[in-house]
From TrEMBL:
<dbReference type="GO" id="GO:0005886">
    <property type="term" value="C:plasma membrane"/>
</dbReference>
<feature type="compositionally biased region" description="Polar residues">
    <location>
        <begin position="886"/>
        <end position="897"/>
    </location>
</feature>
<keyword id="KW-0808">Transferase</keyword>
<feature type="domain" description="NIT">
    <location>
        <begin position="53"/>
        <end position="303"/>
    </location>
</feature>
<dbReference type="InterPro" id="IPR010910">
    <property type="entry name" value="Nitrate/nitrite_sensing_bac"/>
</dbReference>
<feature type="compositionally biased region" description="Basic and acidic residues">
    <location>
        <begin position="868"/>
        <end position="884"/>
    </location>
</feature>
<dbReference type="InterPro" id="IPR050428">
    <property type="entry name" value="TCS_sensor_his_kinase"/>
</dbReference>
<feature type="region of interest" description="Disordered">
    <location>
        <begin position="652"/>
        <end position="897"/>
    </location>
</feature>
<keyword id="KW-0597">Phosphoprotein</keyword>
<dbReference type="InterPro" id="IPR003594">
    <property type="entry name" value="HATPase_dom"/>
</dbReference>
<dbReference type="InterPro" id="IPR036890">
    <property type="entry name" value="HATPase_C_sf"/>
</dbReference>
<protein>
    <recommendedName>
        <fullName>histidine kinase</fullName>
        <ecNumber>2.7.13.3</ecNumber>
    </recommendedName>
</protein>
<dbReference type="Pfam" id="PF02518">
    <property type="entry name" value="HATPase_c"/>
</dbReference>
<dbReference type="InterPro" id="IPR013587">
    <property type="entry name" value="Nitrate/nitrite_sensing"/>
</dbReference>
<dbReference type="Pfam" id="PF08376">
    <property type="entry name" value="NIT"/>
</dbReference>
<dbReference type="GO" id="GO:0004673">
    <property type="term" value="F:protein histidine kinase activity"/>
</dbReference>
<dbReference type="GO" id="GO:0000160">
    <property type="term" value="P:phosphorelay signal transduction system"/>
</dbReference>
Length: 897
């Protein structure tokens, strides 16, 4: 789930939360009412079992002790044993009451009012020993002692009133009325205590009479009020008591006593039976009260049963309703969530599985059935979710159809690009052939220089056309069947770069690359080298190094540019290691797309990193399985066009010999000066094998031409960007210059059988004349013509050159080159400054190790500018187009003819 987004489950829960809370609150309220009644009943039962029983017994004991105490104060000779026994019984009952009232269950069941009443009663009971002491010492009279006990008993009846905690109002009223009827028993006991004492003393004092009259009036008032409050069922037993003869005799004695005393007469004689009648009446009232209490208890049980039923109904049914609501809500919520989850899973499957699978199949060119790849999506039971699923199914089908259409469009665009690139490739190849023919036919240095520039531009255009082919997913038509030396591959890549004069190629070891990947490696290196020249200042150089490593052959291309940030290096390296699908909208750095495609196709590793000089270093690791045995690099006779020139030394860098390598200069003089090739013209005499004058001590391991004509295709010692040496003389022409002989650089001697150059002294090129003897073809269309009368002379054996002989050879070469340039100054118009396209090529000397390996136009040692040699770019191009294994596909040429 995305951050900040709420789940549908949460929303459903929030939607159902308010009704559930309302229902739960209502259920809690009803449950509280019903359970509260049940709790009240439980509390009432607890109070009755603990305080009710013990307080009733305590009240009876206090009433008995009050009567005995009043009697003791009425006579002098009192029964101390009976009073002491009663006091002990009262103390035992008091201890039980205190113990019951102090328990935790009783305290938790008592209300605040009940707790206050019980606490007040216990405080009053603390004064009981003082009352007893006053009775024993006669410090109080009879009425005072009775009133002291009355205050304790009043507190006890207050506790009775506070104990009534019944949720039913009718029961509460009946219980209050019965408590008042119980108070009738207490008032009769008070009157009995007072009259019993008066009977012992024979008289009543005026305060005692007032108290008796007050008690009698209060009793009659409470009786009338209580009887009116009782319902018929509970009132009937009390009516029977009131109608009994015992109660009538008691009321008659009570009225008779009140009237007699009020008139001041003596105590009536009827009081002789006072004690018996009051005892019987008290016993009857106790029995009636117990019976009424039982009936009220039965009624309370019914109320309790109803309360329990309400609790069960409110609690149980309410709980069932709440639980059912929660369960139903959860089930509906889960069902909705499950349907939405299935819809989400279908969407994820489309995005993560089906669409990528469709795209992958489309990339492979497979046909895709839209119906099978975009099946209908199940929508569940909800109508809305079903509609959403159906709409999403339409989206899914549209997405698959769009992917199929886009793939078809991309294939069409790629095919268009491929066809255009193939046509351009064929046209450019034909243009290169035409430029080759034009270079062979012209003798004008300026025209040759322009042709070389066009040749170079055409080569770069062909590379861009091949880039389109690679981006279209196809492979260029060029290929080699035989392994090619790494140095030739790198130089071929240099020849396809615009600012090749800024590139310094360091000596490379003699490794060979399998012919199947030569085209891709050349293209890959050319893209990286061109990037290095573009993204570095024009006054800096780009250095190219290479060496054999444990995992293959590594080529390092280092520039002096501004470099990239670490994040950009990481992004570019990721793009090179895992090239993405080519996007037409992303037109930046197309070269990186091409490099990534080529590297992935041939399992070549390309990594960019920061250079210590602040620029960028590109490391290309060619794996071992792409390297070939050097012995297999010697081409066989295929009958096709072959490479005409071996590579020589590096651009702008001193070359040193490597063991077995092709980068360093050979000890063979043919590696410096090799005869150029020229086509035979109709009417030209058949060429004869060259006959050279052997310089003493120098082994003739190859043809040697010392320049003597300043116009011989350019400056002596000039070379093409491909690294091939620049010849000065060739058969098949007129007025050709002859190589010098002798160590002192005397006049040149003509080659035997080699036709002269042109009328301006430019030599004619001969096919394969500048190639290594092992690479020359003896048959086929490219084989050099050999006259039948050519003498077969065996080459002399190898001999060591002395320092003087070598110095004489190079001195002759230098003098001839200087003279040729001086003569060219008189015949040629001045060339534009700065070299080709405004660039100034590097300086070189005829006797340096770079001799024969400079760009088409260069500045000589003495500052004289000379035109480029006719075969400089020809050598570079022949390395690419005329190698042993070259196979040119001409797809698209016929459509342009």
């Amino acid at each position: 789930m995305s951050s900040g987004k709420r789940s549908i489950r949460v929303k459903i829960f929030a939607l159902l939360l308010l009704p559930l809370l309302s229902l739960s609150a209502l259920w809690g309220f009803v449950l509280n009412l019903t359970v509260g009644d049940g709790i009240a009943l439980m509390r009432a039962n607890t109070i009755y079992q603990s305080i009710g029983v013990t307080s009733t017994d305590l009240g009876l004991q206090l009433q008995s002790e009050r009567g005995l105490s009043a009697a003791a104060l009425s006579v002098n000779d009192r029964d101390q044993a009976k009073l002491a026994a009663q006091r002990h019984a009262t103390d035992v009952s008091l201890d039980r009451f205190r113990a019951a009232a102090s328990t935790d269950s009783t305290q938790s069941a008592l209300s605040d009012a009940s707790k206050n009443a019980v606490s007040s009663l216990l405080d009053d009971l603390k004064g009981l020993p003082g009352i007893r002491a006053d009775v024993d010492t006669r410090q109080s009279n009879r009425l005072d002692a009775i009133q002291a006990y009355n205050r304790i008993l009043d507190g006890l009846f207050t506790v009775y009133a506070r104990m009534i905690s019944v949720p039913d109002l009718s029961i509460f009223e009946q219980a209050a009325a019965m408590t008042a009827m119980g108070n009738q028993r207490e008032i009769i006991a008070r009157e009995n205590a007072l009259i019993s004492g008066a009977l012992h003393s024979g008289s009543l004092s005026h305060p005692e009479f007032s108290a008796f009259a007050e008690w009698a009036a209060n009793r009659r008032f409470q009786l009338t009020k209580s009887m009116a409050a009782l319902d018929p069922e509970l009132r009937r037993p009390y009516e029977e008591v009131i109608a009994s003869s015992t109660y009538r005799r008691f009321t008659a004695m009570e009225q008779d006593l009140t009237g007699k005393i009020h008139t001041g007469g003596p105590l009536p004689d009827s009081l002789s039976r006072w004690q018996q009648i009051t005892d019987n009446l008290s016993l009857t009232l106790d029995q009636v009260g117990a019976k009424a209490s039982g009936a009220l208890a039965e009624r309370t049980k019914g109320v309790a049963t109803g309360i329990l039923l309400r609790i069960a109904a409110a609690g149980g049914l309410g709980l069932v309703a709440v639980v059912a609501s929660i369960v139903i809500s959860v089930r509906f919520g889960r069902r909705l969530v499950r349907e939405l989850a299935e819809l989400r899973n279908s969407a994820n499957e489309l995005a993560d599985v089906r669409l990528p699978r469709v795209v992958q199949r489309l990339r492979k060119g497979e046909d895709v059935d839209v119906d099978s790849e975009a099946p209908p999506i199940g929508g569940g039971d909800s109508a809305e979710v079903h509609d959403v699923a159906r709409a999403f199914g339409s989206v899914q089908r549209t997405a698959v159809e769009a992917a199929v259409q886009q793939a078809a469009l991309r294939r069409g665009v790629s095919q268009v690009f491929l066809n255009l690139a193939r046509r351009n490739q064929g046209l450019l190849h034909r243009q290169l052939k035409m430029l080759d023919t034009m270079q062979r036919r012209t003798n004008e240095p300026d025209a040759l220089q322009d042709l070389f520039h066009i040749d170079h531009l055409t080569t770069r255009m062909r590379r861009h056309a091949e880039s389109l082919i690679i981006l279209s997913g196809a492979a260029p038509g060029r290929a080699w069947r035989k392994p090619v030396p790494v140095v030739d591959v790198v130089r071929a890549a240099l020849s396809e770069v615009e600012d090749y004069t800024r590139v310094s190629l360091y000596p490379l070891p003699g490794a060979h690359i399998t012919g199947a990947v030569v085209t891709d490696i050349i293209h890959l290196l050319a893209e990286l080298i061109e990037n290095a020249t573009i993204f570095s200042p024009p006054q800096t150089t780009v250095q190219v190094r290479g060496d054999l490593v444990g995992n293959g052959f590594a080529v390092e291309i280092e520039d002096r540019g501004l470099g990239l940030s670490p994040e950009e290096y990481q992004a570019v390296n990721e793009r090179l290691a895992h090239p993405p699908e080519f996007d037409l909208a992303d037109s930046d750095r197309l070269g990186l797309f091409v490099v990534g495609r080529l590297a992935q196709r041939n399992d070549v590793s390309v990594v960019l990193r920061a250079s210590p000089y602040g620029g960028t270093t590109a490391i290309v690791l060619i794996p071992k399985h792409l390297l070939a045995d050097p012995d297999a690099a010697v081409p066989a006779d295929t009958g096709g066009r072959h490479a005409q020139r071996p590579a020589a030394t590096a651009y702008n860098a001193p070359a040193t010999a490597h063991p077995g390598g092709a980068a360093g200069p050979s000890t063979d003089t043919s590696s410096f000066f090799t005869p150029a090739r020229h086509p035979r013209h109709p009417g030209d005499p058949a060429p004869t094998p060259p006959a050279l004058t052997v310089i003493p001590g120098i082994t003739d391991t190859g043809p040697i031409d010392l320049p003597g004509d300043p116009g011989a295709h350019g400056t002596a010692g000039g070379a093409s960007p491909g690294g091939a040496s620049a010849p000065t003389g060739a058969p098949g022409g007129t007025n050709g210059s002859s190589p010098r002989t002798g160590p002192s650089g005397g006049p040149p001697s003509k080659r035997t059988g080699i036709p002269d150059g042109t009328h301006r002294g430019l030599p004619r090129r001969v096919r394969q004349a500048n190639m290594a003897p092992q690479l020359r073809e003896t048959t086929g269309p490219l084989a050099a013509p050999t006259p039948p009368s050519a003498p077969a002379e065996a080459a002399p054996g190898p001999a060591q050159r002395s320092p003087d002989e070598a110095r004489a050879m190079f001195s002759a070469f230098q003098q001839g080159g200087r003279r040729g340039r001086m003569e060219a100054e008189h015949d040629l118009p001045p060339a534009p400054p700065g070299g080709p396209e405004g660039r100034r090529p590097p300086e070189a000397t005829p006797n340096s190790d770079d001799a024969g390996n400079v760009p088409p136009e260069r500045v000589s040692q003495d500052g004289q500018r000379a035109a480029g040699r006719p075969d400089e770019d020809d050598q570079r191009r022949e390395l690419r187009d005329h190698s042993d294994g070259y196979v040119q596909q001409t797809t698209g040429e016929k459509g342009d003819e």
